[in-house]
Design brief:
single chain; alpha/beta; Spore Coat Polysaccharide Biosynthesis Protein SpsA, Chain A; Serine Threonine Protein Phosphatase 5, Tetratricopeptide repeat; 3 domains; eight-stranded mixed beta sheet; two-stranded antiparallel ribbon; 46% helix
Length: 432
């Protein structure tokens, strides 16, 4: 069995060595250069890659990838469509060969699309760009997909153990995406996938009304039946409505999103962000508990890092703090710290909640060991004061309104400075 890795590139010299090292387990590496002005081509050839050169005009990703298919040797059995800013983990070939069956036409594999600043995984899903030679073509100007052209039925396998990482050049512009997506929708107005991506692109650009209209249209298309993607369109509509300060409408769309895909954490987390900004603490607890009841990370592209990291527990701890429940606030925060041990803010919060939990217990010990009249007095003081102390401490460093721009939920990646407390009796609860 022979395996060929193939790719398209332009001015990606910085990635060549890492890419070629990663692909060394393949029999062939074929790369179509689409007009590099740096030494990408020279470096690829020096490392043993089969390199073709062509200029695709007007630019389309599907045209370029179909051109790259022509570089693949005829005796290659399996083809892996990879980009130069991606790399396989060692042992990928053996894992692929174990999974591949005689009737297999295509393989799924684990794909880490993004990483956090601390190096931990961000968005993870299962991709499917490994395929049998000679029976696929690429379709769509952007966000291109493999179209099956072979005989018989398509046969997928899950290649457990194949891990591909994406380390992009963050300086590259995605300016070409919007016109290509608009072209894709004009070419095939009934293509639900392209309609969804176009609406998402409008959202990324802050064109809220266009995004809402396009995403709503996606939901009306007969072929738009994938619940995960439908849920995402509903969530994105809600984000746009929040940007337009229409929180009531946004909340209704989030209800729909949860009902559409109750197996995903992401719609619950979007709803949690809304409830957090509205200070609806009891509702926030309920929604986060529902999110955390989903314990299996699904193999879907809509699998956002925040939903599976510390954020659910972080928000849950803050909700409990505002409700005066130091015990549960500490427990939730401890779970957050376990998932993000490097975050000083979470460690400080945990120390504060533990202190409040201990203080609450000590107060209880005091009043249960005194005479009835004293117990009543101390109990009344504790009931009245302690929850307010916890909530006040939690509110001290609540982010300013401008730290939660309307176009995005709170960004867990971004470090934020807490607002200075006014003579706090304990370290403030900080929120990114």
């Amino acid at each position: 069995m022979k395996i060929c890795v193939y790719a398209i590139c332009k001015n990606e010299s910085q990635f060549v060595d890492r890419f070629m090292d990663s692909m060394s387990e393949a029999d062939y590496v074929c790369v179509l250069d689409t007009g590099s002005s740096d030494d990408t081509v020279k470096k690829l050839r020096a490392r043993g890659a089969i390199v073709g050169e062509t200029v695709v005009s007007p630019w389309r990703f599907d045209t370029a990838r179909n051109e790259s298919l022509g570089l693949i040797p005829a005796d290659a059995d399996i083809c892996c469509a990879i980009d130069l800013d991606e790399q396989f983990h060692p042992g990928w070939r053996a894992a692929l060969e174990r999974a591949w069956q005689p009737d297999t036409t295509r393989a799924r594999y684990r794909y880490t699309w993004s990483f956090r600043p601390d190096g931990s995984e961000g968005m993870v899903f299962w991709a499917d760009k490994i395929h049998k030679n000679g029976c696929y073509r690429w379709a769509s100007p952007v966000h291109e997909t493999l179209a099956y052209t072979g005989e018989g039925a398509e046969r997928f396998v899950d290649a457990a153990g194949v891990q591909l990482d994406h380390h992009p050049d963050e300086t590259k512009s995605r300016g070409q995406y919007l016109p290509l997506l608009e072209l894709a929708v004009r070419e095939d107005p009934q293509n639900d996938r392209n309609c969804h991506y176009l609406g998402r692109e409008y959202m990324f650009r802050g064109e809220w009304q266009k995004a809402i209209e396009t995403l709503a249209r996606h939901l009306t298309l007969p072929s738009a039946v994938w619940a995960d993607e439908r849920c995402a369109s509903m969530r994105y509509i809600a984000r746009c409505l929040r940007a337009l300060e229409q929180d009531d409408s946004a909340e209704r769309w989030l209800h729909r999103a949860i009902a559409e895909a109750p197996h995903l954490r992401e719609p619950y987390m979007d709803y949690a962000q809304l409830l957090y900004t509205q200070e609806r603490w009891y509702g926030l607890v309920d929604v986060l508990r529902a999110a955390l009841a989903i314990t299996e990370r699904p193999r879907t592209y809509i699998c956002e890092a925040d939903a599976w990291g510390s954020l659910p527990y972080d928000l849950l701890s803050l909700a409990y703090a505002h409700l005066g429940d130091a015990e549960n606030a500490a427990d939730a925060c401890r779970n957050a710290v376990e998932r993000s041990p490097q975050e000083e803010r979470l460690r400080k919060n945990l120390a504060l909640f533990e202190q409040m939990r201990i203080s609450s217990f000590c107060l209880f010990r005091l009043f249960v060991r005194r005479r009835p009249a004293v117990r009543v007095l101390l109990g009344g003081i504790g009931i009245f004061v302690l929850p307010r102390l916890v909530a006040a401490a939690a509110a001290v460093a609540r982010p300013a309104d401008d730290e939660h721009p309307n176009d995005q939920p709170a960004d867990p990646q971004r470090e934020r400075e807490p607002r200075p407390p006014e003579q706090p009796a304990a370290p403030p609860v900080q929120r990114k």
